[in-house]
Amino acid sequence: MPSLIGCHALVFTGDFDAAGIESSARRARQAGFDLIEYPLMDPFTFDAAAARKAVEAVGLKATASLGLPAEADVSSDDPDIVDAGRRLLDAALERTAEMGGLQMVGVLYGSMRKHMAPATSSGIANSVAAVATLADKADTLGIKLSLEVVNRYESNIINTGRQALRYLADMGRSQVSVHLDTYHMNIEESDLFQPILDTGEDLGYFHIGESHRGYLGTGSVDFASTFRALDRIDYDGPIVFESFSSAVVSATLSNTLGIWRNLWEDGDHLAAHANRYIRDQITAVRTIALH
Ligand code: MN
Questions:
Q1: Residues with catalytic roles
Q2: Which one of 79, 168, 185, 251 is CB 3.0 to 4.6 Å from 189, fit for a cystine?
Q3: What is the pLDDT of residues 85-121, one digit of tens each?
Q4: What total of structural domains would you count in the chain?
Q5: pLDDT tens digits, 188-211
Q6: Cβ distance 167 to 119 under 8 Å?
Q7: C-alpha 204 – ligand 1 centre gap (Å)
Q8: Range of the domain at 268
Q9: How far is the CA of 98 from the centre of ligand 1 (A)?
Q10: Cα 242 to middle of ligand 1, angstroms
Protein backbone atom coordinates (compact mmCIF):
# COMPACT_ATOMS: atom_id res chain seq x y z
CA MET A 1 0.00 0.00 0.00
CA PRO A 2 2.47 2.72 -1.13
CA SER A 3 -0.09 5.51 -0.91
CA LEU A 4 0.62 9.21 -1.07
CA ILE A 5 -0.45 10.71 2.27
CA GLY A 6 -1.91 14.17 1.87
CA CYS A 7 -3.68 17.04 3.56
CA HIS A 8 -6.50 19.37 2.55
CA ALA A 9 -5.19 22.96 2.30
CA LEU A 10 -8.01 24.35 4.46
CA VAL A 11 -6.21 22.87 7.48
CA PHE A 12 -3.77 25.76 7.03
CA THR A 13 -5.59 28.66 5.40
CA GLY A 14 -8.92 29.89 4.09
CA ASP A 15 -7.29 32.45 1.80
CA PHE A 16 -6.33 30.96 -1.54
CA ASP A 17 -4.47 33.92 -2.96
CA ALA A 18 -0.84 33.30 -4.02
CA ALA A 19 0.41 33.78 -0.43
CA GLY A 20 -2.11 31.29 0.98
CA ILE A 21 -1.34 28.78 -1.76
CA GLU A 22 2.39 29.04 -1.02
CA SER A 23 2.16 28.89 2.78
CA SER A 24 -0.24 25.93 2.81
CA ALA A 25 2.11 23.89 0.58
CA ARG A 26 5.09 24.72 2.79
CA ARG A 27 3.20 23.88 5.99
CA ALA A 28 1.81 20.61 4.56
CA ARG A 29 5.38 19.60 3.77
CA GLN A 30 6.55 20.61 7.27
CA ALA A 31 3.82 18.42 8.77
CA GLY A 32 5.27 15.45 6.84
CA PHE A 33 2.75 15.05 4.03
CA ASP A 34 3.47 13.95 0.43
CA LEU A 35 0.53 15.73 -1.17
CA ILE A 36 -1.69 18.79 -0.82
CA GLU A 37 -5.30 19.02 -1.97
CA TYR A 38 -6.34 22.50 -3.07
CA PRO A 39 -10.05 23.38 -3.02
CA LEU A 40 -11.10 25.04 -6.29
CA MET A 41 -14.07 26.99 -4.99
CA ASP A 42 -13.51 29.53 -7.76
CA PRO A 43 -11.58 27.85 -10.59
CA PHE A 44 -11.92 30.97 -12.75
CA THR A 45 -9.62 32.96 -10.45
CA PHE A 46 -7.45 30.25 -8.81
CA ASP A 47 -3.75 30.98 -9.41
CA ALA A 48 -2.68 27.57 -10.74
CA ALA A 49 0.77 28.85 -11.71
CA ALA A 50 1.39 29.84 -8.09
CA ALA A 51 0.19 26.39 -6.96
CA ARG A 52 2.51 24.58 -9.37
CA LYS A 53 5.43 26.71 -8.21
CA ALA A 54 4.56 26.21 -4.52
CA VAL A 55 4.30 22.42 -4.67
CA GLU A 56 7.38 22.01 -6.84
CA ALA A 57 9.40 24.20 -4.46
CA VAL A 58 8.75 21.84 -1.54
CA GLY A 59 8.46 18.54 -3.44
CA LEU A 60 4.74 17.87 -2.92
CA LYS A 61 2.21 16.28 -5.26
CA ALA A 62 -1.08 18.15 -5.75
CA THR A 63 -4.73 17.33 -6.30
CA ALA A 64 -7.80 19.56 -6.69
CA SER A 65 -11.26 19.22 -5.21
CA LEU A 66 -14.56 20.97 -5.54
CA GLY A 67 -18.29 20.67 -5.03
CA LEU A 68 -20.54 22.44 -7.52
CA PRO A 69 -22.66 25.41 -6.36
CA ALA A 70 -26.45 25.49 -6.87
CA GLU A 71 -26.18 27.90 -9.80
CA ALA A 72 -23.79 25.54 -11.64
CA ASP A 73 -25.36 22.16 -10.90
CA VAL A 74 -24.89 19.60 -13.71
CA SER A 75 -27.73 17.54 -12.20
CA SER A 76 -30.25 20.35 -12.70
CA ASP A 77 -33.22 20.13 -15.08
CA ASP A 78 -32.47 23.69 -16.23
CA PRO A 79 -30.15 23.55 -19.28
CA ASP A 80 -28.61 26.96 -18.45
CA ILE A 81 -27.62 25.77 -14.96
CA VAL A 82 -26.20 22.53 -16.42
CA ASP A 83 -24.17 24.55 -18.94
CA ALA A 84 -22.83 26.76 -16.14
CA GLY A 85 -21.80 23.58 -14.30
CA ARG A 86 -20.04 22.20 -17.37
CA ARG A 87 -18.13 25.48 -17.78
CA LEU A 88 -17.12 25.47 -14.12
CA LEU A 89 -15.92 21.84 -14.33
CA ASP A 90 -13.95 22.64 -17.50
CA ALA A 91 -12.27 25.59 -15.78
CA ALA A 92 -11.44 23.45 -12.74
CA LEU A 93 -9.93 20.76 -14.97
CA GLU A 94 -7.81 23.38 -16.73
CA ARG A 95 -6.54 24.75 -13.39
CA THR A 96 -5.79 21.19 -12.21
CA ALA A 97 -3.74 20.56 -15.35
CA GLU A 98 -1.94 23.91 -15.03
CA MET A 99 -0.84 23.17 -11.48
CA GLY A 100 0.30 19.65 -12.43
CA GLY A 101 -2.44 18.00 -10.38
CA LEU A 102 -2.76 14.22 -10.33
CA GLN A 103 -6.49 14.09 -9.72
CA MET A 104 -9.66 16.18 -9.62
CA VAL A 105 -12.06 14.93 -6.94
CA GLY A 106 -15.14 15.82 -4.92
CA VAL A 107 -18.80 16.42 -5.71
CA LEU A 108 -18.25 16.91 -9.45
CA TYR A 109 -21.61 15.33 -10.35
CA GLY A 110 -24.00 17.79 -8.68
CA SER A 111 -24.32 20.69 -6.29
CA MET A 112 -22.86 20.23 -2.81
CA ARG A 113 -25.59 21.40 -0.46
CA LYS A 114 -28.70 20.28 1.37
CA HIS A 115 -31.28 19.41 -1.28
CA MET A 116 -34.96 19.77 -0.45
CA ALA A 117 -36.12 17.18 -3.03
CA PRO A 118 -34.80 13.95 -4.57
CA ALA A 119 -32.75 14.15 -7.75
CA THR A 120 -34.83 13.65 -10.91
CA SER A 121 -34.03 10.93 -13.44
CA SER A 122 -33.53 13.56 -16.15
CA GLY A 123 -31.25 15.54 -13.83
CA ILE A 124 -29.16 12.45 -13.12
CA ALA A 125 -28.92 11.81 -16.87
CA ASN A 126 -27.64 15.39 -17.30
CA SER A 127 -25.10 14.75 -14.55
CA VAL A 128 -23.85 11.47 -16.05
CA ALA A 129 -23.49 13.09 -19.49
CA ALA A 130 -21.56 16.07 -18.09
CA VAL A 131 -19.17 13.94 -16.05
CA ALA A 132 -18.62 11.58 -19.02
CA THR A 133 -17.61 14.56 -21.18
CA LEU A 134 -15.33 15.81 -18.41
CA ALA A 135 -13.78 12.34 -18.06
CA ASP A 136 -12.89 12.27 -21.75
CA LYS A 137 -11.20 15.68 -21.46
CA ALA A 138 -9.41 14.63 -18.27
CA ASP A 139 -8.06 11.58 -20.09
CA THR A 140 -6.35 13.72 -22.71
CA LEU A 141 -4.71 15.74 -19.90
CA GLY A 142 -3.62 12.67 -17.91
CA ILE A 143 -5.79 13.65 -14.94
CA LYS A 144 -7.82 11.10 -13.01
CA LEU A 145 -11.36 11.94 -11.81
CA SER A 146 -12.76 10.50 -8.59
CA LEU A 147 -16.36 11.12 -7.52
CA GLU A 148 -16.82 11.73 -3.80
CA VAL A 149 -19.51 9.85 -1.91
CA VAL A 150 -20.98 12.35 0.57
CA ASN A 151 -23.76 12.29 3.12
CA ARG A 152 -27.41 13.06 2.42
CA TYR A 153 -27.10 16.68 3.58
CA GLU A 154 -24.50 17.44 0.89
CA SER A 155 -25.84 15.53 -2.14
CA ASN A 156 -29.06 13.84 -3.28
CA ILE A 157 -27.27 11.66 -5.88
CA ILE A 158 -24.35 9.64 -4.41
CA ASN A 159 -24.51 8.91 -0.65
CA THR A 160 -23.00 5.39 -0.56
CA GLY A 161 -20.24 3.45 -2.26
CA ARG A 162 -22.78 1.20 -3.95
CA GLN A 163 -24.59 4.23 -5.41
CA ALA A 164 -21.26 5.47 -6.75
CA LEU A 165 -20.58 2.12 -8.43
CA ARG A 166 -24.03 2.21 -10.08
CA TYR A 167 -23.45 5.79 -11.26
CA LEU A 168 -20.08 4.77 -12.77
CA ALA A 169 -21.64 1.71 -14.46
CA ASP A 170 -24.32 3.95 -16.01
CA MET A 171 -21.66 6.38 -17.24
CA GLY A 172 -19.45 3.76 -18.87
CA ARG A 173 -16.12 5.50 -18.24
CA SER A 174 -13.95 2.91 -16.51
CA GLN A 175 -11.18 5.44 -15.89
CA VAL A 176 -13.34 7.38 -13.38
CA SER A 177 -12.98 6.22 -9.77
CA VAL A 178 -14.86 6.36 -6.49
CA HIS A 179 -13.73 8.77 -3.78
CA LEU A 180 -14.71 7.61 -0.27
CA ASP A 181 -14.50 9.73 2.89
CA THR A 182 -14.69 8.27 6.41
CA TYR A 183 -16.65 11.28 7.73
CA HIS A 184 -19.45 10.61 5.22
CA MET A 185 -19.17 6.80 5.47
CA ASN A 186 -19.66 7.09 9.23
CA ILE A 187 -23.06 8.72 8.57
CA GLU A 188 -24.39 6.64 5.67
CA GLU A 189 -22.66 3.24 5.36
CA SER A 190 -23.22 -0.03 7.22
CA ASP A 191 -19.69 0.13 8.62
CA LEU A 192 -16.19 1.35 7.74
CA PHE A 193 -14.98 -2.00 6.31
CA GLN A 194 -17.42 -3.51 3.81
CA PRO A 195 -17.86 -0.46 1.51
CA ILE A 196 -14.10 -0.31 0.96
CA LEU A 197 -14.09 -4.01 -0.01
CA ASP A 198 -17.15 -3.50 -2.24
CA THR A 199 -15.57 -0.52 -4.00
CA GLY A 200 -12.31 -2.44 -4.41
CA GLU A 201 -10.38 -1.61 -7.57
CA ASP A 202 -12.75 1.27 -8.33
CA LEU A 203 -11.54 3.15 -5.25
CA GLY A 204 -9.26 5.92 -6.52
CA TYR A 205 -9.15 8.52 -3.74
CA PHE A 206 -9.69 8.42 0.00
CA HIS A 207 -10.44 11.14 2.57
CA ILE A 208 -9.67 10.57 6.24
CA GLY A 209 -11.84 12.66 8.54
CA GLU A 210 -13.25 12.24 12.03
CA SER A 211 -16.98 12.10 12.83
CA HIS A 212 -16.86 15.77 13.93
CA ARG A 213 -14.08 16.71 11.45
CA GLY A 214 -11.59 17.45 14.26
CA TYR A 215 -8.52 15.57 15.61
CA LEU A 216 -8.23 11.96 14.40
CA GLY A 217 -8.91 9.49 17.17
CA THR A 218 -11.23 11.78 19.16
CA GLY A 219 -14.51 10.86 17.45
CA SER A 220 -16.56 7.80 16.54
CA VAL A 221 -15.01 6.77 13.18
CA ASP A 222 -13.75 3.17 13.26
CA PHE A 223 -10.27 3.79 11.84
CA ALA A 224 -9.07 0.29 12.79
CA SER A 225 -11.56 -1.22 10.33
CA THR A 226 -10.88 1.51 7.76
CA PHE A 227 -7.16 0.82 7.49
CA ARG A 228 -7.60 -2.97 7.61
CA ALA A 229 -9.99 -2.72 4.66
CA LEU A 230 -7.65 -0.42 2.70
CA ASP A 231 -4.85 -2.93 3.28
CA ARG A 232 -7.12 -5.86 2.32
CA ILE A 233 -7.83 -4.33 -1.13
CA ASP A 234 -4.16 -3.27 -1.56
CA TYR A 235 -5.29 0.34 -1.98
CA ASP A 236 -2.44 2.41 -3.39
CA GLY A 237 -4.17 5.74 -4.19
CA PRO A 238 -3.94 8.98 -2.20
CA ILE A 239 -5.08 9.09 1.44
CA VAL A 240 -5.87 12.71 2.28
CA PHE A 241 -6.64 14.19 5.69
CA GLU A 242 -9.57 16.58 5.93
CA SER A 243 -10.42 18.66 8.97
CA PHE A 244 -12.27 21.90 9.42
CA SER A 245 -12.56 24.35 12.28
CA SER A 246 -13.96 27.83 12.62
CA ALA A 247 -10.35 28.81 13.45
CA VAL A 248 -9.61 28.67 9.69
CA VAL A 249 -12.48 29.81 7.52
CA SER A 250 -13.19 29.90 3.82
CA ALA A 251 -16.41 31.89 3.40
CA THR A 252 -17.82 29.59 0.73
CA LEU A 253 -16.59 26.14 1.74
CA SER A 254 -16.86 26.45 5.54
CA ASN A 255 -20.47 27.60 5.36
CA THR A 256 -21.43 24.89 2.87
CA LEU A 257 -19.94 22.23 5.16
CA GLY A 258 -21.56 23.68 8.31
CA ILE A 259 -18.34 24.48 10.17
CA TRP A 260 -19.82 26.40 13.10
CA ARG A 261 -17.63 25.23 15.97
CA ASN A 262 -13.98 25.58 16.82
CA LEU A 263 -12.51 22.08 17.17
CA TRP A 264 -8.85 23.16 17.01
CA GLU A 265 -6.74 26.31 16.91
CA ASP A 266 -3.36 25.18 15.58
CA GLY A 267 -3.51 23.76 12.06
CA ASP A 268 0.19 22.86 12.06
CA HIS A 269 -0.15 20.77 15.22
CA LEU A 270 -3.33 19.14 13.92
CA ALA A 271 -1.66 18.32 10.57
CA ALA A 272 1.49 16.82 12.08
CA HIS A 273 -0.67 14.69 14.38
CA ALA A 274 -2.81 13.48 11.45
CA ASN A 275 0.24 12.65 9.33
CA ARG A 276 1.66 10.49 12.14
CA TYR A 277 -1.71 8.92 12.91
CA ILE A 278 -2.31 7.84 9.30
CA ARG A 279 1.22 6.52 8.76
CA ASP A 280 1.14 4.64 12.10
CA GLN A 281 -2.13 2.96 11.15
CA ILE A 282 -0.71 1.89 7.77
CA THR A 283 2.46 0.54 9.37
CA ALA A 284 0.41 -1.40 11.92
CA VAL A 285 -2.03 -3.04 9.47
CA ARG A 286 0.81 -4.18 7.23
CA THR A 287 2.04 -6.43 10.05
CA ILE A 288 -1.26 -8.35 9.94
CA ALA A 289 0.24 -10.31 7.04
CA LEU A 290 2.83 -11.68 9.50
CA HIS A 291 0.29 -13.02 12.01
MN1 MN B 1 -14.18 14.72 1.83
A1: 148, 242
A2: 185
A3: 999 999 999 999 999 999 999 999 999 999 999 999 9
A4: 1
A5: 999 999 999 999 999 999 999 999
A6: no
A7: 13
A8: 5-290
A9: 23
A10: 6
